[in-house]
Specification:
Blueprint (H helix, E strand, L loop, with lengths): L1 H15 L3 E4 L1 H7 L6 E6 L3 H12 L2 E5 L4 E6 L2 E7 L1 E4 L8 E4 L2 H6 L8 E4 L4 E4 L3 H6 L2 E2 L6 H4 L2 H13 L2 E2 L1 H12 L8 H12 L4 H10 L2 H5 L19 H9 L5 H11 L3 H15 L7 H8 L4 H10 L2 H12 L10 H6 L7 H14 L6 H16 L5
Parallel strand pairs: 2-5, 10-11
Antiparallel strand pairs: 1-2, 1-8, 3-4, 4-5, 6-7, 8-9
Helix pairs in contact: 1-3, 7-9, 7-10, 12-16, 14-16, 15-17, 16-17, 19-20
Bound molecules: adenosine-5'-triphosphate.
The site of adenosine-5'-triphosphate has 10 residues, from strand 2 and helix 7.
Protein name: Polynucleotide adenylyltransferase region
Cofactor: Mg(2+)
Keywords: Magnesium, Metal-binding, Nucleotide-binding, Nucleotidyltransferase, RNA-binding, Transferase, tRNA processing, tRNA-binding
Length: 394
């Protein structure tokens, strides 16, 4: 299959009369014998036309971004990102660069680390290695190519840590020095909070986020970006029994956040709604953990909370809490009533929101253990309906 892809890319290049290259992570991963299906292609020419021609052969799904002269193709298990070779100018530290068409050498030079600066010349069938990336891969080193690299784009600090853990590489000593200097100089102040959070999400989506977050702490990055809010470094590699893995890990990451910090964090980072809700659920559960003694308390505390928040509690807390959470998921949450709205209707009440109230009350009685059979449910239902008919509050 991969040989076929190479042939197809060569064909498209030849038909268009342009040079094209496979660049970046795919080449790095191939050399390291790692599975990779994300193929980045740089075209010395019109990348969009190239992508359209490529997709004619691949018959995948294509997305075109005219503004950035890029296109993405999803075909089979592969994702192709096609760009026109470009050169970038940094105006201010941390701000997205201006774009100008250029040739492959310029394109390679704008990249973050030497191990990502390899390009495979599709026509010639050979690797272009401008900055000794092959040696650095062999020696397992992350190295920047110029001293202003982290200052130009401080997201590279996160990227360096991500690669070093994912690939089990070390920061080359001078690169590590520059990274420390950049952190100390406050380069993070030039990054938007959106870009910071994007990097945090990328870290939390890795296989081993815990070691990366530990490195963030080691280099005191958390102090620079979270103003004294202590991030959690435990259990970050765990997975979740149900729900959204990224949200779950986000909640573990912010497990130590106090109620008073919540508004500050939300305002500064403008988290997505789900994440804000998850965080406030987590804090509320934590504040009430000491009340968790029986099923009914668990039901009341957990019923409108995000599953990921309950799972984070499960992961972080001791055996007693784990038992209650297990019971909540395995027994309480799966309790179902055998009666429904039709039964209320048959007893002569017209449909209205009172139906929900009645069913909720009976459900609650069931969790409390006051109801044990379908007959009990009916009996209870009749009592509630009578009460409503008499105009009494239930
Ligand atoms: P993966 O997608 O597996 O994390 P990748 O190496 O493909 O690894 P991407 O984030 O997809 O990484 O980026 C693609 C390429 O773009 C990288 O190989 C890198 O050379 C370049 N790149 C990405 N972000 C930056 C950056 N902030 N500064 C310089 N180059 C970058």
């Amino acid at each position: 299959m991969e040989k076929d892809i190479l042939l197809i890319l060569r064909k498209v290049s030849e038909e268009m009369g342009v040079k094209s290259y496979i660049v970046g992570g795919y080449i790095r991963d191939k050399i390291l014998n790692l599975e990779s299906n994300d193929i980045d292609i740089t075209v010395e020419g019109d990348g969009i036309r190239y992508a359209l021609m490529l997709n004619k052969i691949l018959n995948g799904k294509i997305e075109i971004h005219e503004k950035f002269k890029t296109a993405k193709i999803q075909a089979d298990k592969y994702t192709f990102d096609v760009v026109s070779a470009r050169k970038e100018y940094y105006t201010h530290s941390g701000i997205l660069p201006d774009v100008e068409l250029a040739d492959i050498v310029e394109d390679i030079k704008r990249r973050d680390f030497t191990i990502n600066m390899l390009a495979f010349d599709i026509k010639e069938g050979m690797i272009i290695d401008l900055c000794n990336g092959l040696d650095d891969i062999k020696n397992k080193l992350i190295r920047v190519v110029h001293d202003k690299s982290f200052n130009d784009d401080p997201t590279r600090i996160f990227r360096a840590l991500r690669y070093s853990v994912r690939l089990d590489f070390k920061l080359e000593p001078h690169t590590e020095l520059l990274l420390k200097q950049s952190i100390a100089n406050g380069d993070f102040d030039n990054l938007s909070t959106d870009r910071i959070m994007n990097e945090i999400y990328l870290i939390l989506s890795e296989k081993n986020p815990e070691t990366i977050v530990k490195l963030m702490k080691h280099y005191r990055i958390d102090e620079k970006i979270f103003d004294g809010i202590k991030i959690n470094i435990r259990n970050l590699n765990t997975c979740v029994r149900c729900g959204d893995l990224l949200l779950y890990r986000f909640l573990l990451f912010f497990y130590n956040v106090k109620k008073d910090d919540l508004d500050y964090l939300n305002e500064k980072f403008n988290f997505k709604r789900q994440y804000t809700k998850g965080l406030s659920d987590l804090i509320e559960i934590k504040m009430n953990l000491y009340t968790l003694k029986d099923d009914i308390v668990a039901y009341n505390l957990f019923k409108d909370k995000k599953i990921e928040a309950i799972n984070a509690i499960y992961t972080m807390e001791g055996e007693n809490i784990k038992k209650i959470v297990d019971r909540y998921f395995e027994v309480i949450r799966s309790l179902k009533l055998e009666i429904n709205g039709d039964d209320i209707k048959e007893l002569g009440l017209r449909p209205s929101p009172i139906y929900k109230k009645i069913l909720d009350n009976i459900y609650y009685d069931k969790i409390c253990g006051k109801i044990r059979s379908k007959e009990d449910e009916f009996e209870r239902l009749k009592q509630y309906v009578e009460k409503v008919k008499r105009g009494e509050k239930i």
